[in-house]
Design brief:
Rossmann fold, alpha/beta, three-stranded parallel β-sheet, 13 helices, 2 domains, binds NADPH dihydro-nicotinamide-adenine-dinucleotide phosphate
């Protein structure tokens, strides 16, 4: 009885894989500089005064410095209009020194996201949200691939988790995570099921999955009985949790550390998977924080390097 209560899932840490990818990118950036005199340049545009978005952009800019990519950050006030942002994006599009354009989402309500995304040059679209890049991916001929989904595939590959032939289930159908990761898994010959808020009897569907990807935005939503024993569970969610009782329930042995974090800064981060329950059933689980999020930034570095090379036919 006691044995069944013990944690069995192995953690798929993002740091080791993200560091390896960043080292590979840094080597190629140095080669590009030495052989062709080119240093890739990423420009990040941050429109809102949202602390989480500001942290994400800061991490991206910091990663650029780590791998030798030039970066520039443009801060715009929350009151920025669609027309004003459009003119910034158009200026970056025609600036030959800029290889990658990243407009941090979400944007304030008054701005039409699609109009901005469609204004980005597909050749500089390092987030890969432009319809041209989305279309190539859907056709199974990816050019730029969105960073979080690409990072998930790297995490699976570099931990020798077989994708071909596996039953993969993606919970969430957003443009940023759910749909593109489903496309990539399909391209890698998984049998893919995509679930969403209208899926009937979700646990009975997710329990078929050898690889379960949770990209929902609801703390601890994927419970132990959603998971096939031994499955690989990739937790994409990033949610803030400030309730101490919930933290105790979600985090099991780790709860003291998490409660300390709540007492110190008001919250702790939790994914879309119930960690304590998943650990009793899953074979592998990605932690939050320290899992998929680190890969997202590493893949942005790779996309920016790729943009610099493709734009010069290198
Ligand atoms: P969205 O809100 O765009 O999409 C959420 C998806 O979850 C929707 O497709 C929705 O279904 C589905 N969903 C919501 N409730 C349920 C439910 N009860 N049952 C089944 N499906 C449900 O979120 P994102 O994809 O942008 O992000 C998901 C999470 O991943 C968030 O926590 C976000 O912060 C995190 N994230 C993390 C990143 C990282 O680098 N680690 C990067 C990007 C996101 P429907 O379509 O029917 O509404």
């Amino acid at each position: 009885m006691m044995a069944q209560e013990q944690s069995q899932a192995r953690l798929l840490e993002g740091k080791q894989v993200a560091d390896a990818i960043k080292q590979e990118v840094a080597r190629e950036v140095a080669q590009l500089r030495d052989q062709h005199g080119v240093t890739p340049c990423l420009t990040a545009v941050l429109v809102v005064d949202d602390p989480a978005s500001a942290v994400y952009v800061r991490n991206k800019v910091r990663a650029c410095a780590e791998v030798g990519i030039n970066s520039q950050k443009i801060d715009l006030p929350a009151s920025t209009t669609s027309a004003e942002l459009l003119s910034v994006v158009q200026r970056l599009k025609s600036n030959d020194d800029v290889d990658g354009i990243l407009v941090q989402l979400p944007l304030p309500k008054q701005i039409d996201d699609s109009q901005i995304i469609e204004a980005i040059d597909p050749a500089k679209d390092v987030d890969a949200f432009h319809p041209t890049n989305v279309g190539y991916l859907a056709m199974g001929r990816p050019r730029f691939v969105p960073c979080t989904p690409a990072g998930i595939i790297e995490l699976l590959d570099r931990n020798q988790i077989a994708i071909a032939g596996a039953n993969a289930c993606v919970v969430g159908r957003s443009q940023i995570v759910g749909r593109p990761v489903a496309s990539l898994l399909l391209q890698r010959h998984a049998t893919v099921t995509i679930c969403h808020s209208k899926t009937r009897d979700l646990p009975s569907v997710t329990r078929q999955a050898d690889i379960l990807i949770a990209a929902i935005g609801r703390p601890g939503f994927i419970r132990g009985d959603f998971i096939k024993p031994g499955a690989t569970v990739v937790d994409v969610g990033v949610n803030q949790l400030s309730n101490v009782d919930q933290a105790r329930e979600f985090f099991g042995a780790e709860s003291n550390r998490r409660i300390e974090a709540i007492e110190k800064r008001g919250y702790t981060l939790i994914g879309d998977v119930h960690p304590a329950e998943a650990d009793l059933v899953a074979g592998y689980r990605t932690p939050v924080p320290g899992g998929v999020g680190l890969l997202t930034v590493a893949m942005l570095m790779r996309n920016t390097l790729q943009a610099a090379k493709w734009r010069r036919n290198l």
